From TrEMBL:
First-to-last residue of the parent protein present: 242 to 604 of 604
Function recorded in the entry: Catalyzes the first step in hexosamine metabolism, converting fructose-6P into glucosamine-6P using glutamine as a nitrogen source.
Identification of the protein by name: Glutamine--fructose-6-phosphate aminotransferase [isomerizing]
Native organism: Salinadaptatus halalkaliphilus
Domain SIS: 44-182, 214-353
GO annotation terms (biological process): carbohydrate metabolic process; fructose 6-phosphate metabolic process; protein N-linked glycosylation; UDP-N-acetylglucosamine metabolic process
Molecular-function GO term, any one: carbohydrate derivative binding
One Gene Ontology term, aspect cellular component: cytoplasm
EC number assigned by the record: 2.6.1.16
Top EC category: transferase
Designated gene of the protein: glmS
Localisation: Cytoplasm
The keyword Transferase is assigned to this record: yes
Keyword annotations from UniProtKB, A to Z: Aminotransferase, Cytoplasm, Glutamine amidotransferase, Repeat, Transferase
Main localisation: cytoplasm
Amino acid sequence: GQAAKGEYDHFMKKEITEQPTSLAQAIEGRIDPQAGRIDLEAFDDGAFADVGSVQLVACGTSYHAALYGAFALRDAGIQATAVLANEYSVAAPPVDDETLVVAVTQSGETADTLQALRLADAAGAETLTVTNVVGSTAAREADDALFIRAGPEIGVAATKTFSSQVVMLTLLAQRISTDLTGEASVDLESLLADLSRLPDKIERVLEESNAERIARQYEDCVSYFFIGRGLGYPVALEGALKFKEITYEHAEGFASGELKHGPLALVTPQTPVFAIFSGQEDEKTLKNAEEAQTRGAPVIAICPDDHPAVEVATDHLSIPDTRSELAGLLANVQLQLVSYHAANLLDRPIDKPRNLAKSVTVE
Ligand code: G6P
């Protein structure tokens, strides 16, 4: 049967709150921080030794996880790109038999994503899906599957599955790097130890978040902007997508450095700017945020308490300290909560936004 909401008013809130557990399930048995080992069950050591490049295909929130994953792969020295699945038939990068195409899909049933998977297969690529649903079409059709084990997600707006997808792709990046070069691209003991601490850090965000106060503070604004750089960029896109999906308010995500190349024309005191600090060139993102602030926009900094942005910004959403590879995940939880509370204040049907479906089975 369908999972129950229990004590929660909405599945979305339940699923946001479940993230410490769902993430712990995603990594359980797959990481050994002491030994610096990643075990992706179906894949023996060396399984990825002939991967020349990686293409990630996905839609919606899963596309943002794919963008995050592409950063993680490139950071690990692997040629990688994320492509919107619905653009794949007209805009696929070249494929050969050393191309690994990864379909990132919560449901495993999104028509656009399945179509891209089939095209990649026909072109001779190796295929893999990162999915939540065992027995889904993607899981059956791809050469291999990695399951994120997030448990059922009922809210139409994806939340917990994003975090688990990102973590799985982060593990995959290090596994591929290890198979290709004989070693991980980072100090694996330290990355895995930080990953194992992530569930507790998310718990802290959930317990201490002031997102409801922030949502109330900016309730009557006109547009909501989200900026980030590097790994903060997909989080900015995801923050904006979540916000527009469930509040019906106008929201956009930008790469921090792009703000000055157009969007700045929209900035007024009625357009709060949520700035994600992922630890990658934060000083530049802070300058970009200040350019908006100079035009009257309130800036809400999402960063640790001791970060220089706290002094400058109008408001602050706090996240615990962690490495830059994982900071975006903590920021994303804060943004999920902001969207949830903003939608709640507007009395929106949070779990079933108008015109949207959990899984879109038409192209
Ligand atoms: C729909 C949902 C989104 C989801 C997207 C991709 O549009 O409303 O929340 O991100 O499909 O779904 P998938 O199951 O492929 O991750």
